[in-house]
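Question: what's this shape?

___
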Amino acid sequence: MTNQNVINLGVDSFIDAFEQNDISHINLDWKPPAQGNTELINILFRLATELVDETGQSLIDIANLEAFNKMKAGQPVLKRVRPAHECIPNMTKTSIFHAGPPIEWRDMCGPMQGAYIGAIKYEGLANTDEEAIALMESGQITYGPNHYNNCVGPMTGMISYSMPLFEVINETYGNKAYCTINEGIGKVMRFGANGPEVIERLHWLEKVLAPALDKALVACGGVNLKNIMSLALTMGDEMHQRNVAASLLFYRQISGELAKVTQGVEEAQAIVEFIAKKNDQFFLNLAMAATKSITDTVRDIPYCTVLTAMSRNGVNFGINVSSLGPEWFTAPCLKPNALYFPGYSEADANPDMGDSAIVECYGIGGMAMGASPAVVRFVGAESVYEAFKYTEQMQQITVGLNNDLPIPTMDFAGVGLGIDIRKVVSTGLLPIINTGVAHKLAGVGQVGAGIVTPPMDIMVDALKAFAARYLK
């Protein structure tokens, strides 16, 4: 057979036939934008051709570059550790906030309801589960998303009146963001546990660890968290499911001042062991507050299609888009593609949960999995190569690369920064999120870890809402 030159566009099944018949060919990895959906293709085309300035430059690209530069310039510095009621205006003893978009008590998943019961008992508002449930059902507890209060929290995300919060200031722009202290492993409220040992640990965080950390931070003038995140990426962390290096780097930076303010050997030993020995995820909450302080600065930029938040409440997944302000776009959460602990399976898993996907909005976590070969098997990824592939794909849906956060394993390319809903819808590539998996029943705790994405529907809904606002 005479050799022929063939260009094959994205139909892999043809390749074998070409090779078997000795047909010279070039295979292009191509697919139509927006999976061939003509309505979405038309929207994307109109956004590109109609929203332009007098020089023909895209108004969206200009706005997105502004958001990229603001996020890149952010300098999150941990300044204080203070009680929630000192950080959140008008907070009362009966105010308790949660992770994710808004949800009613009756619609909450098991772990979220369990955490509310625990938070109510922790605050001394009830002595039993039954009394706590009665308070929730009677409407005596005020609740809503952490994001409404410049806060974030992992998994159930409970923030109540007395809980100590990390206070992070973005020194470039002056805004603040807050997150609770990571509780460590075992039975913890973030997974819905609410027994005596959970409450006891929370009181220790409030009365022992938080005051010591606050004094140490005041003494040292604060800790720049961006510097730690940058270095931790070079040491194999991605700052969502792996925070080993970042946690130790934080402790190293504050250890001298901490040693001076602890009260006795026993207290000092407990604090050191909690931060540096028993809690590999200690830095996760710091990364969340840091990235929240950065993404909040790009809210409400006209024409901007960059995500400012991704968050889950165990029932619904929600996103915010810069130019669309506080409006939530939601759809049912997916269950992670996970590696389960022995004795557990997908049948035990609750749908995805937590505010922690804020770190992916800054390009770390699942977006930077290529920096963290050690996390691959823990989250159920097939290989290190697959982690590299995920990170390369994430660079296709972001505004640009942040060279302040380089990935040594990928020739020091920066993480992809600024998730653009246009690019998500056009390519069909969804943001990759590394996540823990909670048991669907309150109090059981973590049963695995894995990878999850937002539902594509919310990206499409957000793009349509953007088009309805800006296209005439």
Notes: The CA atoms of residues 277 and 329 lie 40 Å apart. The chain has three domains: 1-30, 76-290, 299-470.
